[in-house]
Amino acid sequence: xxxxxxxxxxxxxxxxxDHELAEPDRDRFEDHLRACxxxxxxxxQFRATxxxxxxxxxxxxxxxxxxxxxxxxxxxxxRTRS
Amino acid sequence: MGLPPDDVVVAALRTGxxxxxxxxxxxxSRGMLRLARSYVSTNDSAEEVVQDTWLAVIGAIDxxxxxxxxxxxxxxxxxxxxxxxxxxxxxxxxxxxxxERDGEQGLDGSRxxxxxxxxxxxxxxxxxxxxxxxxxxxxxxxxIQIAAALAELPVRQRAVITLRDVEGCTSEEVCxxxxxxxxxxxxxxxxxxxxxxGRLEDYFDTVRRSA
Lengths: 82, 211
Ligand SMILES: [Zn+2]
Known about the structure:
Chain A is an all-alpha fold and 82 residues long. Helices cover 71% and strands 0% of the residues of chain A. Chain B contains 10 helices and no strands. The complex binds zinc ion. Zinc ion is lined by residues 6, 9, 32, 36, 38-39 of chain A.
């Protein structure tokens, strides 16, 4: 197989990061990154994006009334069983 | 955060251990709300989906057979509940036909030289450098851009990237929760990440130009 083009490389970044590229492709991917400033930058930005997604501030949780309702439902369901 | 093993969790729930129920509720509900929001149009609807999911879990815990992890089981119930709700709202295209839309995304091919050029498939112009990752990508405005990019994704891409990258699930968990194949999961995740990176790129371009 021939060397990755940049256009092909950007399509397999997720497969690469997930260790799903077979070894020859993995080596080709890394060889390309060492030789190509554009792709190295692109993959760096891709990784930074994935990292930033994992650092998003936490979502608000359930409202207090919903939480109380669920706890009451849990309590009630166990009572009817025993 | 350290939940006990599944068999301990299930046994505790079956005997009515409220502390265990509260622990699960408080550990998973935020992530469940975020995922539910991929399917329904308001935070209130998402809260109802999560509530209905927990009610279903309470009703079904005695029948849980342990064929998947408890978390995967709860999340699968969430997805089913959310999809039903979504159909009722018919806010977006149905799940089954969302795939066509997914197929059109990816990095714009016009950024690379054509096949008949001397350097086919290479960048016409390198992507512009971003500010140092640790600094400004995490700045609040960039986070707003990321949240907006997520909100605009097709529903399946949004569900996959939310589970994998925001909530930190493994690809195996995502496949099981969403009932999709490994390769399908990867394609959806890759398109979603490409879209979010593109959004940040546009944002940093704008910042640079106005500086
Ligand atoms: Zn390249």
